[in-house]
Task: structure prediction
Amino acid sequence: MTAHLNRFRRVVLAGALLAAGCGSTDGQAPMRLAIIDMNPGHLDSDVLPLLSDSGQAEFTLIARDQSGQTSPSDLNSVTVNRYRVVYRRTDGRNVPGVDVPYSFDSAVTVTVPVSGTATTAFQLVRTTAKDEAPLRALARSGEVIDVIAEVTFYGRDISGKDVSVAGSVGITFADFVNSTN
Result:
Protein backbone atom coordinates (compact mmCIF):
# COMPACT_ATOMS: atom_id res chain seq x y z
CA MET A 1 0.00 0.00 0.00
CA THR A 2 2.80 2.43 0.91
CA ALA A 3 4.65 1.73 -2.37
CA HIS A 4 1.44 2.34 -4.32
CA LEU A 5 0.83 5.62 -2.44
CA ASN A 6 4.41 6.78 -3.08
CA ARG A 7 4.03 6.00 -6.83
CA PHE A 8 0.75 7.92 -6.86
CA ARG A 9 2.43 10.93 -5.22
CA ARG A 10 5.26 10.85 -7.80
CA VAL A 11 2.75 10.74 -10.65
CA VAL A 12 0.77 13.67 -9.19
CA LEU A 13 4.00 15.66 -8.67
CA ALA A 14 5.22 14.89 -12.18
CA GLY A 15 1.83 15.90 -13.58
CA ALA A 16 2.03 19.20 -11.74
CA LEU A 17 5.52 19.79 -13.10
CA LEU A 18 4.30 19.09 -16.62
CA ALA A 19 1.66 21.74 -16.18
CA ALA A 20 4.21 24.18 -14.71
CA GLY A 21 6.57 24.18 -17.66
CA CYS A 22 8.73 21.08 -17.41
CA GLY A 23 6.53 19.80 -20.18
CA SER A 24 6.78 16.75 -22.32
CA THR A 25 7.31 17.35 -26.00
CA ASP A 26 7.22 13.70 -26.97
CA GLY A 27 5.33 11.95 -29.74
CA GLN A 28 3.39 8.71 -29.72
CA ALA A 29 5.13 6.70 -27.01
CA PRO A 30 2.74 5.17 -24.44
CA MET A 31 4.70 6.82 -21.62
CA ARG A 32 5.53 10.50 -21.16
CA LEU A 33 8.92 11.46 -19.84
CA ALA A 34 8.69 14.00 -16.99
CA ILE A 35 11.27 15.93 -15.00
CA ILE A 36 10.60 15.62 -11.28
CA ASP A 37 13.52 17.80 -10.21
CA MET A 38 16.34 19.70 -11.89
CA ASN A 39 19.24 21.08 -9.90
CA PRO A 40 20.44 23.64 -9.50
CA GLY A 41 17.27 25.69 -9.76
CA HIS A 42 19.52 28.71 -10.25
CA LEU A 43 23.26 28.73 -10.91
CA ASP A 44 25.81 31.45 -10.18
CA SER A 45 28.42 30.56 -12.82
CA ASP A 46 31.86 32.04 -12.19
CA VAL A 47 33.59 32.74 -15.52
CA LEU A 48 37.01 32.32 -13.86
CA PRO A 49 38.47 29.75 -13.49
CA LEU A 50 37.62 28.03 -16.77
CA LEU A 51 35.64 25.12 -15.35
CA SER A 52 32.39 23.64 -16.59
CA ASP A 53 29.19 23.76 -14.54
CA SER A 54 26.99 20.72 -14.08
CA GLY A 55 23.35 20.10 -13.41
CA GLN A 56 21.33 17.11 -12.33
CA ALA A 57 17.91 15.94 -13.48
CA GLU A 58 15.54 13.39 -11.98
CA PHE A 59 13.03 11.75 -14.34
CA THR A 60 9.90 9.66 -14.03
CA LEU A 61 7.42 8.24 -16.53
CA ILE A 62 3.70 8.96 -16.74
CA ALA A 63 1.34 6.71 -18.67
CA ARG A 64 -0.59 8.44 -21.47
CA ASP A 65 -3.56 6.12 -20.88
CA GLN A 66 -4.76 7.05 -17.40
CA SER A 67 -7.89 4.90 -17.68
CA GLY A 68 -6.23 1.96 -15.93
CA GLN A 69 -7.28 -0.43 -18.71
CA THR A 70 -3.66 -1.18 -19.61
CA SER A 71 -0.72 -1.64 -17.28
CA PRO A 72 2.72 -0.41 -18.27
CA SER A 73 5.42 -3.06 -18.55
CA ASP A 74 9.21 -2.98 -18.53
CA LEU A 75 8.96 -2.56 -22.32
CA ASN A 76 7.73 0.97 -21.63
CA SER A 77 11.00 2.00 -19.95
CA VAL A 78 12.69 4.99 -21.56
CA THR A 79 16.40 5.49 -22.17
CA VAL A 80 17.45 9.14 -22.30
CA ASN A 81 20.45 9.34 -24.65
CA ARG A 82 21.17 13.01 -25.37
CA TYR A 83 20.33 16.57 -24.41
CA ARG A 84 20.50 20.10 -25.82
CA VAL A 85 21.17 23.33 -23.92
CA VAL A 86 19.96 26.63 -25.41
CA TYR A 87 20.59 29.94 -23.64
CA ARG A 88 18.29 32.95 -23.89
CA ARG A 89 18.00 36.31 -22.22
CA THR A 90 14.73 37.84 -21.14
CA ASP A 91 15.60 41.18 -22.79
CA GLY A 92 15.51 39.59 -26.24
CA ARG A 93 19.23 39.94 -26.93
CA ASN A 94 19.93 36.34 -27.91
CA VAL A 95 22.62 36.24 -30.60
CA PRO A 96 24.81 33.19 -29.83
CA GLY A 97 28.46 34.15 -29.32
CA VAL A 98 27.51 37.82 -28.86
CA ASP A 99 24.76 38.05 -26.23
CA VAL A 100 24.59 34.47 -24.96
CA PRO A 101 26.86 31.40 -25.07
CA TYR A 102 26.48 29.04 -28.02
CA SER A 103 23.90 26.27 -27.72
CA PHE A 104 25.24 22.74 -27.59
CA ASP A 105 24.24 19.10 -27.71
CA SER A 106 25.79 16.34 -25.66
CA ALA A 107 25.29 12.70 -24.77
CA VAL A 108 23.95 11.23 -21.57
CA THR A 109 22.61 7.76 -20.88
CA VAL A 110 20.09 6.92 -18.20
CA THR A 111 17.18 4.48 -18.30
CA VAL A 112 13.97 5.52 -16.57
CA PRO A 113 12.04 2.50 -15.29
CA VAL A 114 8.26 2.31 -15.51
CA SER A 115 7.82 2.16 -11.75
CA GLY A 116 10.41 4.52 -10.37
CA THR A 117 12.77 7.36 -11.11
CA ALA A 118 16.23 7.85 -12.58
CA THR A 119 18.73 10.64 -11.98
CA THR A 120 21.58 11.81 -14.17
CA ALA A 121 24.18 14.55 -14.13
CA PHE A 122 24.70 16.69 -17.23
CA GLN A 123 26.91 19.56 -18.32
CA LEU A 124 25.04 22.86 -18.12
CA VAL A 125 27.87 25.24 -19.09
CA ARG A 126 30.81 24.03 -21.17
CA THR A 127 34.36 24.99 -20.21
CA THR A 128 34.92 26.35 -23.73
CA ALA A 129 31.92 28.69 -23.35
CA LYS A 130 33.78 30.55 -20.62
CA ASP A 131 36.67 31.18 -23.00
CA GLU A 132 34.41 32.53 -25.79
CA ALA A 133 32.32 35.66 -26.23
CA PRO A 134 30.31 36.87 -24.42
CA LEU A 135 31.51 35.16 -21.21
CA ARG A 136 35.22 35.89 -21.70
CA ALA A 137 34.47 39.63 -21.56
CA LEU A 138 33.02 39.25 -18.04
CA ALA A 139 36.42 38.37 -16.51
CA ARG A 140 37.47 41.18 -14.16
CA SER A 141 34.85 43.52 -15.68
CA GLY A 142 32.24 43.61 -12.94
CA GLU A 143 29.56 42.96 -15.58
CA VAL A 144 26.86 40.31 -15.22
CA ILE A 145 24.78 38.37 -17.75
CA ASP A 146 21.56 36.66 -16.66
CA VAL A 147 20.20 33.89 -18.89
CA ILE A 148 17.72 31.07 -18.87
CA ALA A 149 19.17 27.74 -19.97
CA GLU A 150 16.52 25.61 -21.66
CA VAL A 151 17.56 21.97 -21.38
CA THR A 152 15.77 19.42 -23.57
CA PHE A 153 16.37 15.72 -22.95
CA TYR A 154 15.74 13.21 -25.75
CA GLY A 155 15.29 9.45 -25.59
CA ARG A 156 13.41 6.39 -26.79
CA ASP A 157 11.30 3.73 -25.25
CA ILE A 158 12.19 0.07 -25.73
CA SER A 159 10.02 -0.15 -28.88
CA GLY A 160 11.91 2.78 -30.46
CA LYS A 161 9.34 5.55 -30.01
CA ASP A 162 10.89 8.97 -29.41
CA VAL A 163 10.25 10.97 -26.25
CA SER A 164 11.57 14.27 -24.97
CA VAL A 165 11.07 16.67 -22.12
CA ALA A 166 12.33 20.19 -21.41
CA GLY A 167 13.15 22.11 -18.27
CA SER A 168 14.84 25.42 -17.47
CA VAL A 169 17.56 26.70 -15.16
CA GLY A 170 18.35 30.35 -14.45
CA ILE A 171 22.06 31.22 -14.70
CA THR A 172 23.92 34.36 -13.63
CA PHE A 173 27.31 34.64 -15.33
CA ALA A 174 29.92 36.89 -13.68
CA ASP A 175 33.47 37.00 -12.35
CA PHE A 176 32.34 36.52 -8.76
CA VAL A 177 35.81 36.15 -7.23
CA ASN A 178 37.46 39.12 -8.97
CA SER A 179 34.42 41.39 -9.13
CA THR A 180 34.97 45.00 -8.15
CA ASN A 181 31.26 45.57 -7.39
